[in-house]
């Protein structure tokens, strides 16, 4: 059998070692440093991005807290104004009138939410009396 011939096996093993050594030195000398540089750069970019994200999150949370403070301050001011003026007091009106007004406002809001769909309103054709005559 030619595969097991002693003369052929030694030359194949020799060339296998030579090719393997050349391939290994080429990869470790040329490609591995570039690959490691890319990995370091990715790690650095991920670290910088993480720091930026935490900075932006801290800044937005501080702005949110400051905004809530301003809103609460303005709401208390509005409450003081509404409570101090007699124009907005409901005690000046008859209770039955305000209940009817509240009921009408509630129905109006409900109907506007239920029936003010722009697709429905666009599908309704409205003609004026002048055009029909």
Describe this entry's structure for a reader.
The N and C termini lie far apart (110 Å). The chain has four helices and no strands. With 133 residues, the protein is mainly α. The mean pLDDT is 79. It has helices at 6-84, 95-115, 118-123, 129-132. It has one domain. The protein is elongated and about 115 Å long. This is ATP synthase F0 subunit 8. Keywords: ATP synthesis, Membrane, Mitochondrion, Transmembrane, Transmembrane helix.
* Rg computed from alpha carbons, rounded to a whole number of angstroms: 41 Å
- Count of DSSP E strands? 0
Individual helix count: 4
Mean pLDDT: 79
The ordered string of helix (H) and strand (E) elements is HHHH
The total tally of domains equals 1
Indicate the low-confidence ranges by residue numbers: none
Q: What characterizes the major β-sheet?
A: none
Q: Given the helix and strand composition, which structural class is it?
A: mainly alpha
Cα-to-Cα separation, first versus last residue: 110 Å
The amount of beta strand, in percent, is under 5%
Global shape = elongated
Helical fraction equals: over 70%
Domain ATP synthase YMF19-like N-terminal: 2-73
GO cellular component, one term: mitochondrial membrane
InterPro entries: YMF19-like_N (IPR003319)
Transmembrane segments: 6-32
């Amino acid at each position: 059998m030619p595969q097991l011939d002693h003369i052929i096996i030694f030359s194949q093993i020799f060339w296998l070692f030579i090719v393997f050594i050349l391939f290994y030195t080429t990869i470790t000398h040329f490609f591995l440093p570039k690959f490691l540089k890319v990995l370091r750069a990715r790690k650095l970019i991920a670290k910088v991005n993480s720091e930026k994200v935490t900075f932006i999150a801290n800044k937005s949370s501080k702005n949110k807290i400051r905004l809530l403070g301003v809103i609460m301050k303005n709401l208390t001011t509005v409450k003081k104004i509404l409570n101090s003026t007699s124009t907005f007091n409901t005690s000046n009106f008859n209770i039955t009138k305000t209940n009817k007004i509240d009921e009408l406002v509630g129905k109006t809001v409900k109907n506007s939410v239920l029936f003010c769909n722009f697709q429905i309103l666009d599908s309704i054709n409205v003609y004026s009396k002048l055009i029909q005559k």
